[in-house]
Design a protein that fits this description.
single chain, alpha+beta, Beta-Lactamase, Helicase, Ruva Protein, domain 3, Alpha-Beta Plaits, 8-stranded mixed β-sheet, 21 helices, about 50% helix
Length: about 725
């Protein structure tokens, strides 16, 4: 057999360059056109989306602002209507007269009972972490106020204090209260408002309250709430308000409501044009929530999954609740914490269950709206989220509130991102098609390129799977036939080499770790490595004594199966098998890494034990398992040139075998080093009285299980 030295044939450089140049020019021309059109499409789509989102937000914002303003106007009209009714003027006159007629002070015991109620009641409604106002600071000094609060609050047997019509004290006030209270209570319930107060202008006294909170019967001019916004509105603003006008009292922490942010609507009660008193009712937070959220139907109003409308006051604090707080308070707290808000603000929001008067909104949009300008653009909101935002001032007499409508840019740009992804997919598909089409056309244009020369060039570069077609009966046909014969011979030789290499690799992998195979094949036939703190796992499988041939055959089949199974588990857990017999297996963790692998070794040992028990049960074979682990410095390597043998030497190897020999059925024993390294994850306990095969004492620890899976009150002391 003769061999000929062949030199790879080369295609014509000029032909190859011409074909490539034509293909490149065509590809570039098409791709530049696609990129220009695509870039223009992306830009116009982005501008269109931005304009659409802003227009939609402006529309939603204007709609919600109109609803907020009309809703507050409606509350103002309601307050003015209630105040102008003759029934309320009569009630004021009767209740004021009854209040002035009170002349019987409480006993000292009754006063103490009322004070006790104050202390307990205020502490109960003030959230934890907030200072409870001293009782003496808010306890009414007026004997008349004390009298009424005792009979209508302290001695009130109803859980809902508003259900008490007459306390039965026989006073002129209680007669008037029994007459007018049912009507006023029904009115407040029908209007869906909070507490309704009636104030006498002459004495500045709250002579009536539906809910009977601790502001009932107090003096707004000199009592504990004289500094409140309600007192300012009733005593100052309403004296100069025009007939039919009402005053919106901005939110403030209100003691009778447990410091919870509270707002009132108040209107003057007149008699023949003269102000004789005032009516004020609490505005429930639910009313503002309904106005800003359309009944919490954000998606129905076009705000999507993240959009919201809220109100902010001139102090840069919210006057309505955040959508995220209403929908997912836990996520709100997490996002607010990520935005840099401290524990004080977060605790207040959770304690009062509202973001009103607590959540700051110091944003570009709010700053612009507070100056009287409308704002529309991309900015960051109070949670440091990028948003499309519109903001504008609200037309509310006496208050400087602004309304903000926003949606996160992540949601707003969602359609744009989908469009970009679609465009990228289109371009990714188009590019290879364009390139293929360009080369096809260039090939048809440049026919002189010889396919046989091209095939010879591919073969010369190692592409032995190239098919050589005999296209003619001339010299080129003869050359193609001979070249095809050479290629077939090369293919056969390459296949033989690959098979021989695969067989050699398979045999080496049977006795060596994968990481040592290349080192062995490179010519190093006798080598070893010292490893610090490797963990040895010795597994002993005891076979039962059997007589019948069928049982022996079953045990033999099972032995083969568990050998394969243990090898598979070792590969799964990254553990190397060092040596094995029919009933003994030695594995090691930590040879190929620098980190401590004791934990991985225990996981592997536990997995092997559990699998062996299941496999024995499924096969109906009574085989038992004993496992020992020991860690320390070892030497691992290959010995021999005629017969390759891989093993691990050192004290840990002997200790692991000794621990497996004394372990009970299904027990995993570890030495003190392994026990100390796995003590954080695994519960271990010392096993006393262990004796080595040579009669020496053996220190061992039994693996009880993972600490996370155990009742830690019963967990034995760990190795440390």
């Amino acid at each position: 057999m003769t061999t000929q030295e062949t030199r790879p044939a080369q295609t014509s450089p000029r032909s190859r360059r011409a074909r490539t140049d034509v293909a490149i020019v065509m590809t570039v021309a098409v791709l530049v056109s696609v990129l220009v059109v695509g870039a223009y499409n992306v830009w116009t789509a982005g501008e269109f989306l931005k304009t659409t989102v802003e227009s939609q937000l402006i529309g939603i914002g204007e709609s919600r602002m109109a609803r907020i303003e009309s809703g507050l106007d409606s509350l103002e009209a309601t307050a003015a209507s209630i105040a102008s009714g003759t029934g309320l003027a009569e009630a004021l006159a009767d209740l004021s007269s009854g209040f002035q007629s009170l002349d019987q002070p409480l006993s000292s015991d009754e006063v103490e009972e009322l004070k006790t109620l104050y202390g307990a009641g205020i502490a109960e409604v003030v959230p934890p972490g907030y200072e409870v106002p001293p009782v003496d600071a808010i306890f009414p000094s007026s004997e008349r106020a004390q009298y009424l609060q005792y009979h209508y609050i302290a001695a009130n047997s109803f859980e809902d204090r508003s259900n008490l019509d007459d306390p039965g004290d026989g006073s002129e006030y209680s007669v008037a209260h029994a007459t007018h209270h049912p009507v006023l209570r029904s009115m407040a319930g029908a209007l869906g408002i909070g507490d309704l107060l009636v104030i006498d202008a002459k004495t500045s006294t709250v002579v009536y309250s539906v809910d009977k909170n601790i502001d009932f019967a107090t003096n707004l001019a000199a009592g504990p709430y004289s500094e409140s916004a309600l007192a300012d509105a009733v005593l100052d603003q309403l004296r100069f308000a025009a007939a039919g006008e009402a005053v919106l009292v901005d939110f403030e922490p209100y003691v009778p409501s447990g410091l919870k942010p509270t707002a009132f609507m108040a209107a003057a009660i007149r008699n023949e044009g003269r102000v004789i008193g005032a009516v004020a009712f609490e505005i429930p937070n639910e009313l503002l929530v309904e106005m800003t959220t359309a009944g919490m139907d954000w998606e129905g109003t076009g705000l999507g999954e993240t959009g919201e409308v809220y109100i902010v006051g001139e102090d840069l604090l919210m006057r309505s609740d955040s959508r995220l707080w209403l929908e997912d308070s836990d996520r709100y707290v997490e996002d607010a914490s990520d935005a840099g808000y401290g524990e004080t603000i977060l605790a207040a929001i959770e304690g009062f269950d509202t973001t009103v008067l607590i959540q700051p909104v110091d944003t570009e949009a709010v700053a612009a709206a507070l100056t009287g300008s409308d704002y529309a653009g991309v900015t960051t909101n109070y949670l440091e989220q990028d948003t499309f935002t519109v903001a504008a001032p609200l037309e509310i007499s006496g208050l400087q509130w602004v309304a903000v409508a926003e949606v996160t840019t992540a949601e707003a740009y969602g359609p744009m991102r989908s469009h970009h992804i679609t465009l990228l997919i289109f371009v990714a598909i188009l590019i290879p098609l364009v390139i293929a089409f360009a080369f096809l056309i260039s090939k048809r244009i440049l026919r002189p390129i010889d396919p046989l020369v091209e095939a010879a060039d591919l073969i010369g570069r190692g592409h032995l799977d190239t098919e050589i077609a005999v296209l003619s009966n001339d010299e080129f046909g003869d050359l193609a036939s001979k070249l095809d014969g050479v290629v077939r011979a090369l293919r056969e030789q390459a296949a033989d080499l690959r098979q021989a290499e695969a067989d050699t690799t398979e045999m080496l992998l049977a006795v060596l770790p994968e990481r040592m195979v290349e080192q062995f094949r490179s010519g190093n036939r006798d080598f070893a490595e010292a490893v610090h703190n490797a963990t040895l796992i010795a597994i002993s499988v005891d076979e039962p004594d059997v007589v019948q041939a069928s049982e022996r055959e079953a045990i033999a089949d099972h032995t083969v199966a568990i050998s394969s199974g243990i090898a598979a588990i070792a590969k799964q857990y990254g553990v190397e098998q060092a040596a094995s017999t029919a009933t003994q297996y030695l594995a090691v963790a930590g040879l190929a890494v620098d980190d401590d692998e004791a934990g991985r070794a225990v996981k592997y040992a536990t997995a092997v034990r559990d699998w062996l028990e299941k496999a024995a049960g499924a096969a109906g074979v009574a085989m038992t398992t004993h496992i020992g682990l020991s860690a320390g410095d070892v030497v691992a390597g290959v010995l021999g040139t005629d017969r390759v043998a891989y093993n691990v030497w050192g004290d840990p190897s002997r200790n692991a075998v000794s621990l497996a020999a004394v372990a009970e059925t299904g027990q995993i024993l570890v030495d003190p080093v392994v026990a100390a390294h796995v003590g954080d994850e695994w519960a271990v306990e010392p096993v006393l009285g262990l004796v080595n095969l040579d009669g020496s004492q053996l220190d061992g620890w039994r693996v009880v299980g993972r600490k996370a899976d155990l009742d830690m009150s019963d967990t034995p002391p760990d190795a440390t």
